[in-house]
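B., you asked whether I could sanity-check this one before it goes into the benchmark set. Here's the sequence:
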Amino acid sequence: MFGRAAAVAVGAVAALQSPLWLGRGKLLRLIGQPRPIGPIDLIGATHARRAGQAVRAAHLTLRWLSLAAFPVWRNTCLYRAVAECLVLRHYGIPARLELGVARLGLRGWRLGAGDDEAPKRIMAHAWVVRADVEVTTGATATLAVLR
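And here's what the prediction gave me:
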């Protein structure tokens, strides 16, 4: 019982802290590789479940804060990814933040700017890459990852 309450508290604190991590110095710490923490197999099922509960609590807290019209918090992929990365690292799960961009031209989403099309729209996205989950190509495959 206390484990779930603690997980919710960890998630809420990560959501509250997320705007503080958007400055260049701290954001770079999340984008970089986390410190080696040890074998991922040592993360037990209960620990992983608590981390999942904390991530859901962080996302929900961000949603509530943004609906309450607090100007500091936004329910965007960047804020959610920062909070998720903070939670996962708190639970000892190696994770890093990734940022990607793409532009929509006349022939669809493009990574480069070498063709003659004028960009119609720029899309950016932030997401978390976990060391214990295999990365699959999906919506982020069309994005150029910023390093």
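One thing to flag: The helical segments are 2-17, 24-31, 45-67, 77-90. Otherwise nothing jumped out at me.
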